[in-house]
User: Fold GntR family transcriptional regulator from Phreatobacter aquaticus.
Amino acid sequence: MSLAEALTTIGPIERLTLGDRVYGHMRELLMSGRLAPGEKLSLRATAEILGVSIMPVREAVSRLVADRALEVTPNRAVRVPILDAAQFRELTTVRVEIEGFAAERAAALAGPDDIERIAAAERAFRDLSHAPAPDLAEAVRLNKEFHFAVYAATGLSTLMEIVGGLWLKVGPVINLDLRANPERLATGGAVRFHADALAAIRRGDGPATRAAIAGDIAGAADFILAKGGLSEGAADKT
Assistant:
């Protein structure tokens, strides 16, 4: 076997640095709603949990601060930003437009494998939602998995980057919706909107898919705002 043939059996070497990996893990935690608004992060504790030195954690946190997914308070603490109601409404407006567009494109472009992945994500979220004692943190993650399965069907990497940036900011706030209580999860609109979106994608109905995803986003936002979990004034920066 020649050197070229031998190297072919290995395949490309992953070029992610340790900082990249830590960034990816922390990004996923934020997007999946595993971290709540206002939650503080200890760089040292994070490094110990991940089994790495503090340097890659500091690098990842710096990138997430630049993404506006984390913030440094005046007393130098690192925390998940606390959005006020006006900021959340603005994010919701943008999400309805961007993610609605992505959903409509997905209906036109989704192939059989895409639809299978979307259906699996819809089923997993639905089954958990109707469980006697659902894991609410897992429900938040599965909700994210469904949405991203839909958007990934577009095959548009730039669009996925934009959507990912939005979810970095809104992911922690979704805690206030899906983690509110099991009854909200079972009887809320998320299960219905997901089912409607899947059915519309199967039909290739772009406008109906957009409407279902927009309804899901708006319904969750309305609940969060009605619950009063977000301040109407400027967020506390301490």
About this structure: DSSP finds twelve helices and three strands in the chain.
